[in-house]
Every structure is written in structure tokens, then in C-alpha cells.
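Example record for the data management plan.
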Amino acid sequence: MALTKVLITVTTYPLPSRSYDELVCTAGVLENGQWIRIYPVPLKFLKGLRKDEK
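Corresponding structural encoding:
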């Protein structure tokens, strides 16, 4: 699987999971402008990426 840069633009409300703590469905834009859907993403992975987080 190749590494790709994605600008994450939206996430859904976290859902409980048996395998992970919480999962979110995530969508973003690739460098070429194409939309991409990424699922499942563990919520703890996204915690450090938000700049507006308190």
C-alpha cells in the first residue's frame, strides 16, 4: 500500500467498537483534488491532529 497525503476535512461522531475504543468515518481531499473516504479510523489517532482542540 502506497503512502498518500490526505487533507482530512470531516469526521463523523465517534462510534463504540469492540476492537478499538471508538471509531470515526473520515473524509478528505487528496493532493490532486479527489475526495477519499477513510474508514475505520481509531479516534485516538486523530486526537493529535486537530489544531483547535483544547
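Summary line stored alongside the record: The chain is about 5% helix and 45% strand.
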